[in-house]
Specification:
Length: 286
């Protein structure tokens, strides 16, 4: 996941904001201990959301401490390292490696990134072989779908299925059909919004883009003008289905963070991507 599953800060209570930051910083510190300083560059809000969601769902015991770092020397609340946090740190690196491999297949090598992260990704894969196997299967299916010229839903299916399996894996005995459905739908959401965000760049470089394959508009502006209502329906339908699945899940003290992300954050990122004037949407910083 690549930075699209994020809270909506203007609609967050201060307590929830501090709690989410604590999960983000805790994951960042865990990444450092797991794989070194450079691994921290891969930390994103999606992974922090996953940490907040599954620590609450599984009842994993947590401890809040105070720490600082180079970027933020002043001490702030941080979720201390847990076994689940280590698993999510490994997942984050494995997904980062998968993204780099997919970029390489598309002709965008990112050589420096691959060199910087190669050893760290390998170590994460060795420590979480089941997650690595899931990612490998997804990438293989993804490349096959793109080579065959798949349309929207077929193109998104491999990553959606991967996230369904990841959610099942992290939830362990607490898994349910609703939890797995949330993972599946979030995977499809991320694939779709990433394709919309990369639309002009993909078309320019001749890379596969599911929306271009389906609608064929020469630019994102043309796509939005011709198919704006249909795009809005596709994305809103996904969010509503996530909400419906989430209503079946019992949450605890992290409910404010999770609800804000799924109710407001997903729509906020859609608006940011759809309303941009040109280029990619601006990355947010909480």
């Amino acid at each position: 996941m690549f930075g699209y599953v994020t809270p909506d800060k203007p609609n967050m209570f201060m307590r929830d904001y501090v709690l989410f930051r604590a999960y983000y910083c805790g994951l960042c510190h865990t990444m450092k201990r797991e794989s070194g300083q450079l691994a921290r560059l891969t930390v994103n809000y999606d992974a922090a959301f996953i940490a907040a969601f599954f620590h609450d769902l599984t009842g994993e015991k947590r401890e809040i401490t105070e720490k600082g770092c180079v970027l933020n020397p002043r001490k702030r609340p941080v979720i201390a390292e847990t076994p689940l946090m280590r698993e999510i740190a490994r997942l984050n690196l494995i997904l980062a490696g998968m993204k780099l491999a997919d970029d390489k297949a598309d002709g965008d090598s990112n050589l420096l990134k691959r060199m910087a992260l190669s050893y760290r990704v390998k170590r994460a894969r060795k420590r979480a072989p089941d997650l690595a196997a899931m990612a490998d299967e997804c990438l293989k299916r993804q490349i096959a779908e793109e080579k065959s010229g798949a349309f929207l839903n077929a193109a998104a299916e491999p990553f959606a299925d991967l996230m369904k399996k990841v959610f099942r894996r992290l939830a362990a005995e607490k898994t349910s059909e609703a939890v797995e459905r949330i993972g599946y739908l979030l995977g499809k959401y991320v694939y779709f919004i990433d394709a919309l965000d990369d639309y002009d760049e993909d078309v320019k470089k001749g890379r596969f883009n599911a929306f271009y394959r389906t609608f064929g508009a020469p630019t994102f502006a043309a796509l939005k003008e011709e198919k704006g209502e249909e795009l809005a329906f596709i994305m809103e339908d996904l969010v509503k289905r996530v909400e419906n699945a989430y209503r079946e899940v019992d949450m605890g003290e992290n409910e404010g963070v999770v609800t804000n992300t799924l109710w407001y954050g997903l729509r906020s990122r859609i608006a940011t991507v759809m309303d941009r004037e040109d280029g990619k949407c601006t990355r947010i910083r909480l």
